[in-house]
Amino acid sequence: MNAIEVKNLNYSYDRENWAVKDISFVVEEGSYTTIIGHNGSGKSTIAKLLLGLLEKNSGSILVEGLELTTENLHEIRNKIGIVFQNPDNQFIGSTVRDDIAFGLENHCFPQDEMDEIIETYAQKVGMFDYLDNEPTKLSGGQKQRVAIASVLAMKHNILVFDEATSMLDPTGKKEINQLINELHKDKKLTVISITHDIEEVAQSDNVIVVDKGRIALTGTPLEVFKKEEALIKMQLDIPFVYKFRKALSQNGMKIAETLSMERMVEEICQFVSKK
Amino acid sequence: MSIRFEKVDYEYSPNTPFAFQALKEIDLELSLGKITAIIGATGSGKTTMVQHLNALLLPTAGKVTVQDFEIEANKRFTQVKALRQKVGLVFQFAEYQLFEETLIKDVAFGPKNFGVAEHEAEEIAKSCLRTVGIDELDYEKSPLELSGGQKRRVAIAGILAMSPEILVLDEPTAGLDPQGAKQMMDLFKKLNSEKKITILIVTHNMEHVLDYCDEVVVLDHGKVLMQTDINTFFENDEYMEKANINPPSIIRLKNLLKKNGISISKDVVTIDGMVKELTKRLKK
């Protein structure tokens, strides 16, 4: 089954310019999809439309086969959760425990079940030892982990990350990228990540490139990075390994296609004499 | 002439239960005319340190010297205005500090405040907006109509309008898309080479440190862990380990090749340079 199916989606903030114009795409269940595009290309608008935070002008969004309408918003949000960019804007509780509990309380979970769920997910994101800490005193990476635990506790099948790492330092970024990878490992969770981090794109299954509110390219990371000129025209970057491999091939060293640095070095070793 | 920190301490909320010492005995000398990167983990004191440079924060102990200005602990500093004309500080997420109705008014605000006549201030604003690459058609627009990256450029233009000799930028590229970030760094390089502006950049982006900066200062828990030129920093694994950073991709590749028995010359840190060396050693 498809986790998400978007058909001919349109949205305009001001009724003059299209922020999202005639967008259609499919996200398979259990896949890891990244959405890239420069600032202002419409990426975050798509995320908000998927969650029903913005109401589409036309087109349709199917979440696990169910069409998103104003009537079934509640049901849809039991299936799909979102983690936002700014870790400071999404805290409600005065402790980490309260914060993760918030969503569960709203869904009237019994107290004893709730404690168990909270602890399980705090453990999963590596924040078990901080359950009684104040969220404001945590580092950016830790805050995002708590936000992720709060969303995971709701047992959504689909998680959207809206530039969840862009305000974090490199350590925080790495932590969250590793966590996303881990959560996605058993393919039970569908991940959609809106990102500028080209190295994160390289680790995803599928990429959707958005430009001026439209889908410009889709495919696996390797397929998309092949369209190097188009990406650069859209103010996007390509991963270092891909650039290096291209420079090698222009100088007569043709090595196998890869986005892994380790793999590239193995290849180079076969061509070059060691000294 | 230089920028000097002598035994500088800074404590937030002293004599309260929330007291926190963010800087501890900072000793540092930065020569003018360079691009210097200030790096270190979140909470290491980078922002606190750079906010001393235009007397936004005053040291709780020690002395900061910026050219002829001396900012000493427990002494009234009276030349704030003159100092702030020399040292321009661009905050993190600078786009939040735009407030005027039009771009041109926003950028002209600084010079006008420093006593420049209205017409002249607008001319300065125009030239600064041009420098940061804002289209002339947008000058009369409201800042609210711009994208995040454009807003940040306007905020930088607002600082440039005061023609600072020293430009301090606190994470100027955070949250920008890759090309936007590159254009921003190119702009700083240009300001440095053409207008001889001394540039200090607080950043987490090691690719930028390698590609654009001359010198690096590493802070750790409020102390200076090391200060060195860029090449020395990226040539020594132990330095990068000590600073706890993710090396730039090209340095990681170099190290990985070395582990596999292929050493690349020390000073080669570009893709073209490395590819050239590798192709020279192709097996026949």
- How many distinct domains of chain A? 2
Count helical runs of chain B.
11
Q: What is the CATH architecture term of the largest domain in chain B?
A: 3-Layer(aba) Sandwich
Strand content of chain B: 15-25%
- Number of domain modules of chain B: 2
Strand order of the largest sheet of chain B: 6-7-8-3-9-10
The radius of gyration over CA of chain B amounts to 21 Å
CATH topology of the largest domain in chain B: Rossmann fold
The major beta sheet of chain B can be summarized as: 6 strands, mixed
Oligomer: heterodimer
* Low-confidence runs of chain B: none
Question: What is the helical fraction of chain B, as a range of percent?
Answer: 25-40%
Helix and strand sequence of chain B: EEEHEEHEHHHEHEHEEHHHH
How would you characterize the overall build of this protein?
Chain A has 275 residues and is α/β, with parallel strands linked by helices. Chain A folds into two domains: 2-228, P-loop containing nucleotide triphosphate hydrolases (Rossmann fold, 3-Layer(aba) Sandwich); 239-275, no CATH class. Helix content of chain A is 38%, strand content 21%. In chain A, strands 6-7-8-3-9-10 form a six-stranded mixed sheet, with helices on both faces. In chain A, strands 2-1-4-5 form a four-stranded antiparallel sheet, with helices on one face. In chain A, a hairpin with a 2-residue loop joins strand 4 and strand 5. In chain A, helix 3 (96-106) crosses helix 4 (111-124) and helix 3 packs parallel to helix 5 (140-152). Chain A starts with a strand and ends with a helix. In chain B, helix 3 packs across helix 4, helix 3 packs parallel to helix 5 and helix 4 packs across helix 5. Chain B folds into two domains: 2-247, P-loop containing nucleotide triphosphate hydrolases (Rossmann fold, 3-Layer(aba) Sandwich); 248-284, no CATH class. The model of chain B has no long low-confidence stretch (mean pLDDT 92). In chain B, strand 7 (166-170), helix 6 and strand 8 (198-202) form a beta-alpha-beta unit. Chain B is built from eleven helices and ten strands. In chain B, the strands form two sheets. A six-stranded mixed sheet of chain B has the order 6-7-8-3-9-10. A four-stranded antiparallel sheet of chain B has the order 2-1-4-5, with no helix packed on it. The chains are: A alpha/beta (275), B alpha/beta (284). The interface between A and B is large, with 42 and 38 residues.
